[in-house]
Amino acid sequence: MKKILMLSVPILALLFTTGCGNTKELSCTMSDESTGMEMTQDVKVTFKNDVAKKLDMTMKITIDDELKEYASEIEDNFKSSYSSVEGKEGVTIKSSTKDNVVSFNLVADIDKMDDEAKEELDLAGETETYNELRKSLEDEGYTCK
After folding, report:
1. What is the pTM of this model?
2. Are 20 and 48 in contact (CB under 8 A)?
3. 26-29: Cβ within 8 A, 24+ apart
4. Where is 13: in which H helix or E strand?
5. d(Cα 73, Cα 140) in Å, to the nearest integer?
6. Is residue 132 scored above 60 in pLDDT?
7. Got the DSSP string for 70-106?
8. pLDDT band at residue 125, thresholds of 50, 70 and 90?
9. Confidence class for position 36, pLDDT limits 50, 70, 90
10. At residue 52, does pLDDT exceed 60?
């Protein structure tokens, strides 16, 4: 009995430190200003055992008052960019325009998505690990924590 306990303690310790089902979230933000508008983008990716499982991307564009009339057009462009995956299993898309602020949110539960939707969102095939994706996003100008 003592031998079983002595063997199980290191195994349990290993499981707790490595995380049987280790879940990690990568959270990155990028801001950009252009003539007449300011954009912020937040990307959150949930990893389980270093494999991406969920993507949550939020974009907010604030338009100067002079360009306010283009807000609905910007929202329509977002919608049309993702129309092929809208309503698909595992994908939720929301957008709104209020005054001069356009908001867009895309949530992808990768395990629930079919191959076609994954392909459309460039999530098909081998995905990057937590560290690889973090480096890629930081190389694109995101600040990750």
Report:
1. 0.78
2. no
3. 26/130, 26/133, 26/134, 26/137, 26/144, 27/144, 27/145, 28/134, 28/137, 28/138, 28/142, 28/143, 28/144, 28/145, 29/142, 29/143, 29/144
4. helix 2-18
5. 26
6. yes
7. GHHHHHHHHHHHTTTTTT-TTEEEEEEEETTEEEEEE
8. confident
9. confident
10. yes
The tokens of 129 are what? 């690990």
| DSSP line for 20-67 | TT-EEEEEEEEEEEETTEEEEEEEEEEEETTEEEEEEEEEEEEE-GGG
Query: Which residue carries 């990716």 as its tokens?
Result: 45
Is the predicted pLDDT of residue 12 greater than 80, yes or no? no
The amino acid sitting at 80 is: S
Q: What count of residues does the chain have?
A: 145
The string of DSSP letters for 121-136 reads TT--SSPPPHHHHHHH
What is the distance between the alpha carbons of residues 11 and 72, in angstroms, rounded to a whole number? 57
Indicate whether 19 pLDDT > 50: no
